[in-house]
Structure prediction request, 154 residues.
Amino acid sequence: MNPVQQVVQRRARPLAITVATTLWLVAGICWPLGVLVRRLAGATGAGVSPGFGSLDFLLSMFGVVVLGIAECWLALLVRGGNWYARLGLAFGAVICETIVLVQLIGALTAGLSAYYGAGAALWWVTMVVWAVIPPCALVFSFLPSVNGYLAARR
Prediction:
């Protein structure tokens, strides 16, 4: 073998994978923080009971913490070159975005008066953040440079 054939060079991580990982990490952190901040701000209405000791709060908080941990873990696996983690994030994002869109449609059909209290504006802000960040991360996760990077790591 000549010297050219013996040199092995790792493929550099593209900027798109760094941006996608950052967006996935932000999305994973925004789920539990959004639920907690909405409850702290006192957003009530549409069947939401105020207080931290209620069963609906505890169950939703448990669910979004598990979701956030899984999302962050999968994002770090994608950064390392795991192709299947990207599919898991995409599948999870479709499910979560469906839930967010159903909540947004329900809130819009109920009218703005269905969500009242000091946290009503914060409720809308968290819903918009939840609706925007995961699709952006998903787009960055499937750019051609990311495809080449993950294919080289397989």
In short: The chain has six helices and no strands. The first helix runs from residue 3 to 6. The mean pLDDT is 81.
